[in-house]
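check this one:
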Amino acid sequence: MRTGRSSIVPLLTPATAWFGLFFALPIAAMLVVSFWVVANYQLVPTFTLTNYTKLAQPLYLSIIVRTFAIATIVTILAALVGYPVAYYLARRLKRLRVFVLTLIVLPLWTSYLVRSFAWMLVLGTSGAFNWFLQGIGVTDQPVRWFLYTEFAVIIALVHIYLPFFILPVFAVLDKLDDRLLEASSDLGASPWTSFWTVTLPLSRPGISTGCLLVFIPAAGSYVSPELLGGPSVLMIGSVIAQQFGLVFEYAFGSALALTLMTGILIVALGLLRIGKVQGLK
């Protein structure tokens, strides 16, 4: 046993060093800097809670609430759209499964920035949405509130991160033992009852993982809110970028980043707890 453990240590050393150098060390540096202050564009080593008390101001508090609210809505919509797709692929579709999966993954081969610009064209006053509404006679003039609103940001983020929900749920449903559904049917359960009592509970790990893979990047998104939301839909990612790139408030930017990470960590722990299947260790 000791020989086996000692042989694993050299294999883990590069990964551990990489994790410490490019994750743990920057996080520790941000934690230290978040208690400093900036004076005359210079970091002044000290210890103060000013950067964290500043987060309680109505402006920043509303941005934090908006960020997590949008990320939550995006995650819920991705789940509502993605679960039926994953279920159909795993339990119903057989012949064209690889082709449909390729179509789902295909948008990931394009740039995140390109997809955000594409939604600007779709939601703009001369975009496809307005063209369709005017074509069917719903409106005579272009609707301007499609773009530079929370609606535009949410729609774009759902589209961008939807594959990250579909794939883990599909992986779980595809490995679901058919004998469990057969046993449920033999005991007199209807297909709908079998779904709610067997399929859905056993797919909780995939749902939890998919929600994590959507919520985390949605909460920290920067490009889509900047392009599609404009100045009226500020999210915490945009504010962090401003603190580091425009106003050089590295201390406050670090406090914002750590607050975002803490909130995401709390949500992640909750989702992981929900995703545990009862009866399994």
Remarks:
- The two ends are 24 Å apart (CA to CA).
- The mean pLDDT is 89.
- The longest strand covers residues 37-39.
- DSSP finds 13 helices and two strands in the chain.
